[in-house]
Amino acid sequence: MPGPDKETDLTERIEAFLSDLKRGGSGTGPLRGSAETARETTALLRRITAQARWSSAGDLMEIIRKEGRRMIAAQPSETTVGNMVRRVLKIIREEYARSRGSSEETDQQESLHKLLTSGGLSEENFRQHFSALKANVIEAINELLTELEGTTDNISMQALEHIHSNEVIMTIGRSRTVEAFLKDAARKRKFHVIVAECAPFCQGHEMATSLSRAEIETTVIADAAIFAVMSRVNKVIIGTQTVLANGGLRAVNGTHTLALAAKHHSTPLIVCAPMFKLSPQFPNEEDTFHKFVSPHEVLPFTEGEILSKVNVHCPVFDYVPPELITLFISNIGGHAPSYIYRLMSELYHPEDHEL
Amino acid sequence: MWIFAALVFPAQRKWSSIVNMADSGVTDGPEKKNDIERAKNEGKDLSKEEKQRLRKEKKHQKKSKEKKDEKAPQETPSAVPAPAPLPVPASESPVPADKPAKSKAELKAERRARQEAERASKQNKKGEVGQQVATGKTKAPQSELQPVVKRLPEHIQADNPDVLKKLAKKLERQQTPGYNATTKAKIPLRSDYGRKVSLFSHLHQYSRKAPLTQQLSIPSTVIHPAIVRLGLQYSHGIVAGSNARSVALLHAFKQVIRDYSTPPNEELSRDLVNKLKPYISFLNQCRPLSASMGNAIKYIKKEISNIPSHCKEEEAKSKLVNCIECYINEKIILAAKAIAKYSIEKISDGDVILIYGCSSLVNHILCEALEKRRKFRVIVVDSRPRLEGREALRRLVQRGISCTYVLISAVPYILPEVSKVFLGAHALLANGYVMSRVGTSQIALVAKAFNVPVLVCCETYKFCERVQTDSFVSNELDDPDDLIVTRKGKTHLEDWQQVDSLGLLNLVYDVTPPDFVDLVITDLGMIPCTSVPVVLRVKSVDQ
C-alpha cells in the first residue's frame, strides 16, 4: 500500500484547498460560487474518507472534524464548508447505525421520553469496526454530490409556479441561483426585472447584463432608489449567502433595506436558497456575524487627508430577520421560515452543531 | 361713462371674436390692464396670466400700431372720469379707477364667471362674488375656494407629442421682441437621451455630455450671459442643492435686472417679466426647476408687476434688487439661523446623529451645534452615483466634527448606534410628503423600523402646493450613464444602449410618507409633517 505517498498527496490537496479558501473570500463577491465550494469540500471529504487511515467510525469522524475545523478557520464567512462537513458527519453516523443494525428511527427521534430514559445511550463511541463502512460512506457521499449538482436545476424547475406574466420582479446583487430561476421562467413568461446594483461592489451590473442577454427586460437602479420603486414591484426574489437556524438570512449588503421596503408595501419576499446553505448558526450580531473588507471600496484613497480623520465601514453581509421573509425555495421544495429549524434537524446531528 | 361704454362695446366684440376662449375676456386698453391687475391681485394661477401675456404678445407683434392708436383715444376717457394720473397700465390703478372700472369689471366678471361655470360647475358662485368684490389685493378667502384649474407642468409630459410640439412653439415665440425670425435667435429645445425606462417615459432624460448651450449661437442674443452660465452650472451639477440653486438664480436675476433697460414705449413692470420668461424656459431645459426656485420666481414676478408705473427706471431697478436681497436674507439666511436655533435644542450631549447626502441646512445646523459646545458625533451616509456625502464629510471634518462614513446599503448595520436622524428636504408637499434626494425615504423607513427619531429640516420657502404620493409621477431623471462604473478593469454596463432589454434608471428625487417623519423643523417652529398646508395658508394670508 503506497501509504505515505497517498498521505502526502492528501495533505497537499487539503493545503491547496485551504489556501484557495483563504484567497477566494476576499469580499469582492465570491470568485467561486457557494455551490462550487460545497462540491469541492464534499469531494475533498470523500477523498479523506478514501485515503486517510482509520479503523472505526469514531476515528473517521475525528479526522473529518479536525480537517473541518481547519477549513472553517481558513474562511469563517464561507459557511458552506462547515455545512458540508456536518452533512458528512451525519452520513457517517447514519451508516454506522445502519451497519450496527439499529433502526434509524430510534436514533433520530428526540422525544422527551427518549431523553429521559436513554440518558447514557447517546454515548456511542463509534468504536466498532465494520468493513463495509468505508464503501457505504463513500457511496453516500457520492449521493450527496449528485444532489449538490442538481440543486440549481431543482430550484429553477419551480420557477414557473411562482412567476406569472407581466410581473415586475426585484432582486439585488448577483446570485447564480436567482439568475437560473429567472432565466428558466423567462422561457415561457414575459416579465420585468429590476436589479439593485448593490454598491460598492456593484454585482448587480453583471446580473443585469446576464439577464438582458436572456431577453428579459431589465432595469438597473441605484441602491438608494429601492424604496422609491418598490411600490411598483410585485415580488422580490433574492439569493443569500447563508440561511440561519432561526430562518433569518445572512445576505449581501442592502438586503435588509430591501426586505423592510418589501414589508412596508406588503410585497412577498422569496429567497432561493439550496439546502447546503442552511447553517446551524444563530445570528449573534457581534464579532462573528459581520465581515468587513477594505474601506477603500467605500472611500477611496484618492480622497486624501480626511481618510485619517474618519471611520469608514464596509460590511459585506446584512442580517435579515425571519419576520420579513415570505418563502424559502430550495431544492426540496418551498418552505416557510418557521419550518427551517425542522429541516435542520434532518440534515445535521445536534452534536455536530459545534464542530 | 356712457360714451366710454359705447366705445368699449364694439371693441370688446371685435376682440372677443378673435380670442375665442377668453377666460378673462381680454380686450384692450385699461380694461386689459385692470384685468391683469385683478388677475394678479387675486392670486390667479399663472396659467391664465401667462395665456393673457402670450396673447398680448401676439397682438403686440401683429397689430402694434393699431393698438397704439386705440390706446390713445381710450386712455383719455379713462383719465377723464377717474382722477387716475396715468394712461399706462399701473398696478395701483384699480384703486383710483375703481368707479369706471367697476362697470367693465362687472361685465368682464360675468363673462369670466360664465366661462368658469362651464369648466368647474361647483364653486362658481363663491368665486364670482369674490371676483366682483375684490378688485384690490385681497385674495386670501377666495384662493382656496376658487377652482384650481392648473395646467400640468410640461416637464412631466415628455411622452405626449402634442405637449412637446407646443413647447417647441413656445420657445420659438419667446424671443426678445425686436429680434424676429431673421436673426434665428431662439431658445433651443433639448432632446432626450438614451432609452427611458417605461415607467418613467413621461419624464425627460438628458445627457450631461450634451448641454443645451451647445445649440446656442455665440454671442447669444436672446439669453443674458449670466443666465447661460447659470444654466450650464445647473446642467453639469456644479451648482447643486436647492438652496444653492435658488440663491444662484436670484443672483443671476439681480444681474439681469441691473443690465436691463426699458425699451421705449414699454412699461418696466410688464416688459421685464416678459424678458424673464425665455430665461426661465432655458433654465428649465438645462435642469428642471426645483420647488424653491419656482417659489422664488413667483415672488420676483409679483414684485416686478407691483412696481408702480410712476417709478423711474433706476429707482425701480434698485428697488427690485433690494427686494431680491431681502428675500435671500429672510427666507434663506435668517431662516437657517432660526432652524439652527430650534434644532440645537434637540441635540444633546453624547448624541450620534445620522445625516444623508449633503444638505446645506443640516451642515449648518451641525456646525452651529458644535459652536454651542454640544458633544456629538456624526455618521454620514452616502449613495451612488452622486456621492454627495463626501462633500458633507469634508465640510464637517474640516470643522472638527468626528465622523463615520458608510454607504446607504450599510444603514441597517450602523443604525443601532444612532440616536437621531437629521434629513434635509428639497420641498415639502401639501399632503405632508417630503420630497428629497433619492434614498431619503429609505433611510426614514429603516430608522422607523429601528425606532430612531427622524427630523426633517426645511425652510418655509420650500413648501409647495403640489401633492404627490409616489416617486413616479413627478421626478427628475438624471444622466443614466452615471450608473456605469469600472471595477477591476471591467465595465459591465458599457454598451447598455446596444442591448435592447437593458435600461438604466438614475432617479434624483423621492417622496417620504409623513408617517416616517417625526418632526419638521422650520423657521416658523417645529411642526408635524401634516401641518404643511396650514403653513401654506398662513403664508398666503400674510402675503
UniProtKB/TrEMBL annotation, chain A:
Family annotation (Gene3D superfamilies): Translation initiation factor eif-2b, domain 2 (3.40.50.10470)
Gene Ontology molecular function terms on file: guanyl-nucleotide exchange factor activity; translation initiation factor activity
Coiled coil: none
Database matches in InterPro entries: eIF2B_beta_subunit (IPR051855), IF-2B-related (IPR000649), IF_2B-like_C (IPR042529), NagB/RpiA_transferase-like (IPR037171)
Keyword Cytoplasm (UniProt): yes
Record key words, sorted: Cytoplasm, Initiation factor, Protein biosynthesis
GO CC term (a single one): cytosol
Primary location group: cytoplasm
Compartments (UniProt record): Cytoplasm, Cytosol
GO biological process per UniProt: animal organ development; central nervous system development
Cited Pfam families: IF-2B (PF01008)
Superkingdom field: Eukaryota
Subunit structure and binding partners: Component of the translation initiation factor 2B (eIF2B) complex which is a heterodecamer of two sets of five different subunits: alpha, beta, gamma, delta and epsilon. Subunits alpha, beta and delta comprise a regulatory subcomplex and subunits epsilon and gamma comprise a catalytic subcomplex. Within the complex, the hexameric regulatory complex resides at the center, with the two heterodimeric catalytic subcomplexes bound on opposite sides.
Family: Belongs to the eIF-2B alpha/beta/delta subunits family.
Function: Acts as a component of the translation initiation factor 2B (eIF2B) complex, which catalyzes the exchange of GDP for GTP on eukaryotic initiation factor 2 (eIF2) gamma subunit. Its guanine nucleotide exchange factor activity is repressed when bound to eIF2 complex phosphorylated on the alpha subunit, thereby limiting the amount of methionyl-initiator methionine tRNA available to the ribosome and consequently global translation is repressed.
Protein name, per record: Translation initiation factor eIF2B subunit beta
UniProt source species: Betta splendens (Siamese fighting fish)
Lineage, broadest ranks: Eukaryota, Metazoa, Chordata, Craniata, Vertebrata
Gene: eif2b2
From TrEMBL, chain B:
Record flagged with keyword Cell inner membrane: no
Biased composition (Basic residues): 53-65
Any Gene Ontology CC annotation: eukaryotic translation initiation factor 2B complex
Gene of this entry: eif2b4
Membrane-spanning segments: none
Function: Acts as a component of the translation initiation factor 2B (eIF2B) complex, which catalyzes the exchange of GDP for GTP on eukaryotic initiation factor 2 (eIF2) gamma subunit. Its guanine nucleotide exchange factor activity is repressed when bound to eIF2 complex phosphorylated on the alpha subunit, thereby limiting the amount of methionyl-initiator methionine tRNA available to the ribosome and consequently global translation is repressed.
SUPFAM superfamilies the record matches: NagB/RpiA/CoA transferase-like (SSF100950)
Tree of life domain: Eukaryota
Region (Disordered) location: 22-145
Keyword set, alphabetical order: Cytoplasm, Initiation factor, Protein biosynthesis
Pfam families cross-referenced by the UniProt entry: IF-2B
Family matches, as InterPro entries: IF-2B-related, IF_2B-like_C, NagB/RpiA_transferase-like
Compartmental location: Cytoplasm, Cytosol
Subunit structure: Component of the translation initiation factor 2B (eIF2B) complex which is a heterodecamer of two sets of five different subunits: alpha, beta, gamma, delta and epsilon. Subunits alpha, beta and delta comprise a regulatory subcomplex and subunits epsilon and gamma comprise a catalytic subcomplex. Within the complex, the hexameric regulatory complex resides at the center, with the two heterodimeric catalytic subcomplexes bound on opposite sides.
Claim: Amino-acid biosynthesis is one of the keywords in the record: no
Identification of the protein by name: Translation initiation factor eIF2B subunit delta
Listed Polar residues bias regions: 132-145
Gene Ontology terms for molecular function: guanyl-nucleotide exchange factor activity; translation initiation factor activity
